């Protein structure tokens, strides 16, 4: 059953990505509606897949790289659906859907991992830690996409090359607003994730902090977003500086997610590309 659910989700997400790419080229609203509802269908099947895996494992379905990538893709799409409902920005999907499709394709290319899970990987604190972190990461993907669009649109305006892409992207004010709301909503989620992760570490390892490489990089990423949010709210940062900082922070986030679990000797280590982690 899980292979059917994940396969359908993968197919629909890739199909919708193609639709969003066609939309940004042709600017056909019917193409957007098709791509949107296909992506929504992919999100539904991915949700069913994750629920099925949660029941089968008895724990959050993100304890190895294969499942973590699938969870990340789900969180990115979920964040997009929420922001699309708020801003009604059709072009946003053309930048967000490829991110989710990349994670889904990456996940599907990895080998299946046996379901046997040690008791240490089960518990409410682990569920809260992983879920809040991924939801925050998904929202930050929206901040990243809006920042990219901002820099593209700003460049066109400054060079006075108002071609076809200029007409397809929204105003700089709208893009900056999306970036702002993404930070406001995403930062509390990753903060909750950091706190619950520390509590879980205390419960499992007897210490809130282990100086684990992924812990250190996660704290650095959190600090990066904290600085950005502070500068936006207290200092008044907006526009280009906020967009560049958002892109930098998201690159740190991706490195922490992949590099912290693959490149370093860590109890968060994913092992081989399909292997299981000791802790998430």
Characterise the protein shown here.
The chain is 77% helix and 0% strand. 44% of the residues are buried. It is mainly alpha-helical and 280 residues long. The chain has one domain.
Summarize the structure.
The protein has about 280 residues and is mostly helical. It has helices at about 1-25, 30-55, 65-85, 90-110, 125-160, 165-170, 170-205, 215-235, 240-260.
Whole-number mean pLDDT? 86
Number of strands: 0
Give the overall form.
flat
In percent, how much strand structure appears in the residues?
under 5%
Structural class: mainly alpha
Residue ranges: pLDDT <50 for 5 or more in a row?
271-280
What is the rounded Rg?
19 Å
* Residues in helix, %: over 70%
Order of helices and strands: HHHHHHHHH
Task: Indicate how many domains the architecture comprises.
Answer: 1
> Main β-sheet, in a few words?
none
Note the gap between the termini: 25 Å
How many distinct helices?
A: 9
Features:
mainly alpha, single chain, 9 helices, 280 residues, flat
Layout: helices, strands, pairs:
Layout (H helix, E strand, L loop, with lengths): L1 H25 L2 H29 L7 H23 L4 H17 L15 H36 L4 H5 L3 H34 L7 H23 L4 H23 L18
Helix pairs in contact: 1-2, 1-4, 2-3, 3-4, 3-5, 4-5, 5-7, 5-9, 7-8, 8-9
């Amino acid at each position: 059953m899980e292979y059917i659910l994940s396969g359908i989700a993968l197919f629909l997400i890739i199909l919708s990505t193609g639709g969003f790419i066609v939309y940004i080229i042709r600017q056909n609203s019917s193409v957007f509606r098709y791509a949107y509802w296909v992506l929504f269908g992919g999100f539904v099947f991915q949700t069913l897949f994750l629920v099925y895996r949660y029941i089968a494992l008895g724990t959050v379905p993100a304890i190895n790289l294969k499942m973590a990538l699938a969870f990340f893709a789900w969180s990115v799409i979920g964040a997009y659906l929420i922001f699309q409902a708020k801003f009604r920005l059709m072009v946003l999907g053309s930048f967000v859907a490829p991110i989710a499709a990349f994670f889904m394709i990456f996940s599907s290319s990895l080998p299946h991992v046996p379901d046997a899970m040690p008791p240490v990987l089960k518990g409410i604190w682990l569920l809260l830690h992983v879920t809040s972190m991924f939801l925050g990461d998904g929202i930050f993907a929206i901040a990243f996409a809006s920042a990219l669009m901002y820099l593209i649109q700003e460049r066109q305006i400054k060079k006075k090359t108002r071609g076809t892409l200029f007409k397809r992207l929204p105003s700089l004010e709208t893009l900056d607003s999306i970036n702002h709301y993404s930070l406001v909503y995403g930062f509390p989620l990753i903060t909750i994730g950091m706190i619950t992760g520390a509590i879980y570490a205390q419960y499992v390892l007897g210490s809130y902090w282990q100086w684990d490489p992924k812990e250190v990089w996660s704290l650095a990423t959190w600090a990066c977003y904290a600085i950005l949010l502070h500068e936006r709210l207290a200092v008044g940062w907006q526009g280009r500086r906020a967009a560049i900082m958002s892109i930098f922070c998201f690159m740190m986030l991706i490195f922490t997610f992949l590099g912290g679990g693959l490149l370093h000797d860590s109890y968060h280590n994913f092992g081989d590309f399909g292997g299981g982690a000791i802790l998430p």
